[in-house]
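2024-03-11 09:14:02 DEBUG pipeline.ingest accepted 1 chain
2024-03-11 09:14:02 DEBUG pipeline.ingest length=319
2024-03-11 09:14:03 DEBUG pipeline.predict start
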Amino acid sequence: MSAPTLSTRKPSPAPRGHHRPAGRDSAREEFVRALRRNISAHGFLIGAVLCFSFFSWYPMVREFFLAFQKTEDGRTTWAGWSNLSYVFNDPAFWQAWRNTLLFTVLALVLGFAVPFVIAVVLNELRHAQGYLRLLVYLPVMLPPVASVLLFKYFYDPGYGLFNRIFEFFHLPAQQWLQDPDTSMLSVVIAATWMNMGGATLIYLAALQGIPGELYEAAELDGAGLLRKIWHVTIPQTRLILSLLLLMQIIATMQVFTEPFLLTNGAGPEGSTTTVVYLIYQYAFNFNNYGSAAALGLVLLVVLAGFSAVYVRLSRSSED
């Protein structure tokens, strides 16, 4: 019997295609893991883009086409420039723009300066700062309609709070919302109280980010409170101030809720008729949607032009 021998046959090679390079497999697995990790983020992003497109971009594009169309007896036809011509020849158009610009100027005088002053005062306090921040922001948390109706009660000429205060100091009572000379100022006061909380907290956060060494150096130079605000506080918060200035101008030129609820929109002798309220009248009182879209397009162009000029001036100042 012969002794068993080891086989000298070489193992047959594995068929091609059964093994892939390890680098390619790891790259694919890494891609799958990254895709799974980011799929929820992409889903939220796509949803936000779709919502923004549907509720923001589509109405803007639709308004642009509607501004050059006219609908009569259920038929929509192109009207060319007739809607814009009708809007520019309407006497209420120029009155609405005057009132809107007046509201914007008064709102900047009060609504831009008052929150900054309150923020400076809060920043100097060392006790109960959190409670005071809550107290300042409280009007923003209230529903706008409730806040406006509260001020409508305050402005009542018979039993309103403001006339009671005037009576205590032996001052004549005022027809706040019924007098054309005081109606717009009354609307501005209510709007300032309702919206100043957010701006105040933004200013306060910016103030707390200013290094204390700058104030110490100013004190060593003999600077008082006003000089420290002018030479330290304002330069250090210039970016926030300019940004909120732009946002407030855009917001005030679109004012609608306050005059609509306080003075029924137009006010005495049309003293509180704003551009947005005139758009509302065209669309829902006169059923003239083409003119409403045309006036909205004019407002859009004005705000876009102002924003472009502001951005250009900001870049020039930075350079």
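2024-03-11 09:14:41 DEBUG pipeline.report The longest helix spans residues 22-66.
2024-03-11 09:14:41 DEBUG pipeline.predict end
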